[in-house]
Amino acid sequence: MSQIILDSxxxxxxxxxxxxxxxxxxxxxxxxxxxxxxxxxxxxxxxxLAGKRFKLEALQVMRLxxxxxFDVLKSPEIDAxxxxxxxxxxxxxxxxxxxxxxVHYAEMSAIAAAILSKADAVMIDERTTRYLxxxxxxxxxxxxxxxxTPVELDKVVLAKLRRMAKNVKFTRSAEFTxxxxxxxxxxxxxxxxxxxxENLLDALLWALKLNGCAISTKDxxxxxxxxSK
Length: 229
Known about the structure:
Layout: E1 3-6, H1 8-16, H2 21-30, E2 33-37, H3 38-49, H4 55-66, E3 70-73, H5 76-89, E4 93-95, E5 98-99, H6 105-117, E6 121-123, H7 127-134, H8 136-147, E7 152-153, H9 155-164, E8 170-171, H10 173-182, H11 196-210, H12 217-228
Parallel strand pairs: 1-2, 1-6, 2-3, 6-8
Antiparallel strand pairs: 4-5, 4-7
Helix pairs in contact: 3-4, 3-6, 5-6, 7-8, 10-11, 10-12, 11-12
């Protein structure tokens, strides 16, 4: 049985595209466990329930939590590891002598939970966090381009942080949806038109990209090519 830890981004991206039901499908068919931390629960349920804009999406998330599709993880160990890793993550890059605060508590708690539970993957749509662990030099280039100023990278701090998360694998809602598509879990949405599969996958991936999943057009087109073979 596999376990995937979810950050808030993928839940939001999939809920905005009416695709939350995929979690039920994958859990029922493959026995996959989907887990969220208390901090992520606050972002996708507690906070939006107090407002109006995303209340409907939060109610859908609540239903999944009540039926056990999303397992909520809460432990002092997760909190402790999150509080250890977060300052390191936000000390890796600096510009004009100031540390760049790039990572938030909830997403770091998801990574901490993945480490402690030895999860198969952590699903994070936010590019900055994934690049920090997977492509730190590329992230520095992105930051320099965005800030229009040189950015320093503390390689000693980065190395310590990456050692802590050395076994963590990252994925996004786009890859998750592409795998669901490949397994036929989205066949009920196939349109009655030529190249129905290609058109459906294209629509799915672009919808996720436009609703929060940080996937480049190049990566999106690569997924399209791989799934069309």
